Backbone:
């Protein structure tokens, strides 16, 4: 393979990864944005101001990157040869744990950057509260169910075929 063909192949991979990144980000942003609006409405009933709408986009971008990094590792494909329901459930649980771990690491690094030390980052994380952290993990795990269901269908059927079925019509994705 010559250098020109290798560069073209790399360019195609980069474009595909960027497409995947922005599709994942958009999905998560919509889901997390709805959750933010829900929180805003509930808190507004009690007279509490809650204006963290931009946070949903940043969080979606970070989680999308975690998903793309996570899919590079073999342990994320452990149940790919079994029933799709098991593969979806496994990926939902696994990526929820990965996102939770990255969240803790993010707080540690934030504390370190702001000269609070690693303990300061953990203290900030603990101030969020167990109920809040539990609610976020639960909400994200539920958001992962339709996401990984479509992801697994695309893996089995082919993403182009699945996209054609969704955006052109069922006949467009049919064989023959």
Residues:
């Amino acid at each position: 393979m010559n250098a020109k063909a290798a560069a073209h192949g790399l360019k195609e991979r980069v474009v595909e990864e960027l497409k995947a990144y922005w599709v994942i980000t958009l999905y998560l942003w919509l889901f997390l944005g709805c959750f933010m609006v829900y929180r805003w409405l509930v808190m507004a009933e009690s007279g509490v101001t809650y204006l963290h709408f931009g946070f949903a986009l940043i969080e979606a971008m970070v989680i999308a990157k975690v998903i793309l990094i996570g899919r590079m590792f073999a342990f994320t494909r452990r149940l790919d040869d079994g029933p799709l329901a098991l593969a979806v459930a496994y990926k939902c649980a696994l990526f929820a744990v990965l996102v939770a771990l990255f969240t803790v690491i993010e707080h540690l690094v934030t504390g370190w950057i702001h000269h609070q030390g690693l303990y300061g980052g953990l203290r900030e994380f603990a101030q969020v509260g167990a109920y809040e952290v539990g609610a976020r993990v639960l909400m994200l795990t539920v958001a992962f169910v339709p996401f990984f269901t479509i992801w697994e269908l695309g893996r089995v059927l082919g993403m182009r075929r699945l996209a054609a079925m969704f955006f052109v019509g069922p006949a467009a994705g049919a064989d023959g």
Remarks:
- The mean pLDDT is 83.
- The two ends are 33 Å apart (CA to CA).
- The CA atoms of residues 61 and 147 lie 15 Å apart.
